[in-house]
Amino acid sequence: MSASRLVLRPLLRAQRRSLATATAGHAPAAHPAEPKRAAAAIPLSNIEAQWALLSSDEKTSVAEQLEELQKRDWKLLSQDEKKAAYYVSFGPHGRRKPIHEKGDGFKIFLSVAAAVGVSGVLFYAIRSISPPPPKTMSKEWQEAMNERALEQKMNPITGIASEGYKGPGFVQSK
């Protein structure tokens, strides 16, 4: 989520609330224990099953309906209303939807195993058709290079011909 959206979220909510109160006009005040219900109110029982099927407008309507319900005493709310309020606020949907569904771990494991298997087969296939390493990569050749470097006193200050040198020199092969 972008930082600008996080910063603007409270402003957008305040604007939405102010628009909602501005359109209410001069409607008679309702009793605080009785919430205002929309004409086409969506039933809050088992909202978990219905949530995925609702349009974004219906989801907004349910959220606003629950927001109004939560303004009154929580002891007066039914169990379904409390569950719906919790689900809409903290349920596994939107940004809180799990990244991986059930069973995705096994699919990921099989995909990784297949990728490693294919890369191994490809490695050995390419290696089988490649030419042998050059003769300069043999251990004997590299030891001969060390002897020749000592004969020529190559790099006498810090290299192979220096006093007390204990490095491998040109030997890279095992």
Which short descriptors sum up this protein?
174 residues, mainly alpha, 6 helices, 53% helix, 0% strand, elongated
Short description:
By secondary structure, the protein is mainly alpha-helical.
As for the number of domains, it is 3
- Element string (H = helix, E = strand): HHHHHH
Number of distinct helices = 6
Q: What is the typical, i.e. mean, pLDDT?
A: 78
Distance between the termini: 53 Å
Strand content: under 5%
What portion of residues is helical?
Answer: 40-55%
Radius of gyration: 37 Å
Q: How would the global form be characterised?
A: elongated
Q: Main sheet? A: none
Structural class: mainly alpha
pLDDT < 50 stretches: 22-39
Give the number of DSSP strands: 0
Structure commentary:
With 174 residues, the chain is mainly α. It folds into three domains: 36-97, no CATH class; 99-130; 132-174, no CATH class. It is 53% helix and 0% strand. It has helices at 3-23, 47-51, 56-70, 79-90, 104-129, 139-151. Helix 3 (56-70) crosses helix 4. The longest helix has 26 residues, at 104-129. The model is unreliable at 22-39 (pLDDT under 50).
Can you lay out the helices and strands and say which pair or pack?
Blueprint: H1 3-23, H2 47-51, H3 56-70, H4 79-90, H5 104-129, H6 139-151
